[in-house]
Amino acid sequence: MTQAPTPTADTVRRLVRSLLKEGAGTAAGPDVRPVADGEDAVTWWVGTRHVLRLAPDADAAVRQRRELRLRDLVRPHLQVAVPTSVAHGEWAPGLTYTLDTKVPGGSGEQHEVSALGEADLAGLLTGLREVPPRQAEALGVPRTAPRSLEALRRAAVQAAERLAEADEFDAARLRQLTPPAAGQLTVQPGGAVLVHHGLTGAHLVVSADGRVRAVLGWADAVIGDPAEDIAGLARAVGAPAAVRAATLAGYGARPCLRGLWLARCDSVRHLAETLSGRARTPLPLLRAELRRAWEPILLERVTDLREDVTGDTL
């Protein structure tokens, strides 16, 4: 197998010079810099108005081509912005790129989401549910089966014990989710929708006043369990805000509570994996996600499910 080339500043500058008029006439070309530190920089700031994303391998190229088509499909259904590509093609044989217009604002890791921002998130969840799944599947978006919450609970219990030994978490908190309760929080038939599947703080563009202005990172979207996006929001903006947004979007108690416990179990597992050296996600980020996912909400009696639960009760 031929090894993919490593993108460098010169590689990026030559590509961008051919795409943009700005800086094309100068010897240095446009100002480019990687978004994140590391040897495998595949996302680059281009000046102050654009961002360039390079697919590092063939699988990423397939997902990026699909993402470009999916963004066009979802845009009419959403009240928040979706990135717009001003140019796309191949930066190396079989490896794609997209040059997107930069969306102004900070990330969800930098700014707290306000009450109006929660309404923006509710509009996001509503819009995703309105996208016809067959149209998304026609673009190549895969359909995935719901995860077993009971299997996830068992894995989280073991992870919580390791965190307790490291004085990172009170393992007793997971006892709220009993096996019978996990069994009640199954996905109902016919409930599959378009799921962003990557609603992290880094993928939420939030303004200084707490409004959610855009959602990035559509490459991992699937047709599946909407509770996965509620879970992502719980880790990104906090459990209460995520549940309020999902309730505003019309979701009842079961998907809200399922999303809450997916987030809580995942946050415990992810932190334990990184502490043990099996993952490389920054610990401060994982600790923040754990804290947000475990923020208390009013409804904690998971065994007392009611499908007509209102936002006030949650």
Please tell me about this protein's structure.
The protein is α+β, with helices and mostly antiparallel strands and 314 residues long. Helices cover 41% and strands 13% of the residues. The protein is built from 10 helices and 10 strands. The strands form 3 sheets. A 5-stranded antiparallel β-sheet has the order 1-2-3-5-4, sandwiched between helices. Strands 6-8-9 form a 3-stranded antiparallel β-sheet. A hairpin with a 5-residue loop joins strand 8 (204-206) and strand 9 (212-215). It starts with 8 loop residues before the first helix and ends in a 21-residue tail after the last helix. The relative contact order is 0.12.
Largest sheet: 5 strands, antiparallel
> Number of DSSP helices?
10
Run of helices and strands? HEEEHEEEHHHHEEEEHHHH
How much strand?
5-15%
Unreliably modeled segments: 300-314
Please describe the topology of this protein.
Blueprint (H helix, E strand, L loop, with lengths): L8 H11 L12 E3 L8 E4 L3 E5 L3 H17 L10 E8 L2 E7 L4 E2 L7 H16 L2 H6 L10 H17 L13 H6 L8 E3 L8 E3 L5 E4 L6 E3 L2 H11 L1 H10 L4 H23 L7 H11 L21
Antiparallel strand pairs: 1-2, 2-3, 3-5, 4-5, 6-8, 7-10, 8-9
Helix pairs in contact: 3-8, 5-9, 7-8, 7-9, 7-10, 8-9, 9-10
